[in-house]
Specification:
Elements: E1 11-12, E2 15-16, E3 21-24, E4 31-32, E5 49-50, H1 57-67, E6 74-75, H2 77-80, H3 86-94, H4 96-102, E7 106-108, H5 115-128, H6 156-167
Parallel strand pairs: 3-6, 3-7
Antiparallel strand pairs: 1-2, 4-5
């Protein structure tokens, strides 16, 4: 993976305003001083190492691969924001809403939540609070969850547990979540 610096005319490696995907995830609270980190060429700052209990380098690479499957370009904060220059970091964090808005697709990686537990929680939530699909707003989350195994009809107690499970995930506690 290679990171390209933005040029004056909003070009990256000679491509003006490339169509890109973006990935949103949490990592700041899980940074550690030692350990393996993802390798990204083209950056002059230290890429942070993350506690393996939150995600491993291999899991991160898999998430990046999935998020970039239909695009040649991916906006990834640690590759696009200088992690050692606080002024640049603050400016770019202020631009994140616009960065995500311009992306073709934004992926939310809800690590370390397992897919099975996530689908179960959202299935229960969807059962109690169905969301109408609005094809006019393709960037709005509107997927319906259908679990792979048969689940009993949820009750109010399971709804409460599902909401607690959702809101306890690091992604939903992050001040950077957009």
């Amino acid at each position: 993976m290679t990171s390209y610096e933005r040029e004056q005319d909003d070009s990256y490696h000679g491509v003006r305003q490339p169509v890109y995907n973006a990935i949103s995830y949490t990592w700041g609270k899980f940074e550690q001083s030692l350990g393996p980190a993802i390798k990204i060429s083209g950056v002059h700052w230290k890429i942070p190492s993350i506690e393996s209990s939150h995600f491993t380098v291999q899991e991160f690479m898999s998430a990046i691969e999935a998020a970039s499957a239909n695009s040649q370009w991916l906006w990834l904060d640690i590759a696009c924001i200088d992690q050692e220059d606080q002024r640049v970091k603050i400016d770019e964090i202020g631009n994140q809403a616009a960065i995500f808005e311009r992306a073709r697709t934004v992926y939310a990686w809800l690590t370390p939540w397992t897919t099975e537990k996530m689908e179960h929680a959202f299935y229960i939530l969807d059962t109690f609070c169905p969301v109408p699909v609005d094809s006019q707003h393709t960037k709005v989350f509107h997927y319906r969850f259908k679990p792979t195994n048969k689940l009993p009809t949820p009750d109010q107690h399971s709804l409460l547990r599902a909401i607690e499970n959702i809101t306890s995930q690091p992604f939903f506690k992050s001040v950077w979540t957009l």
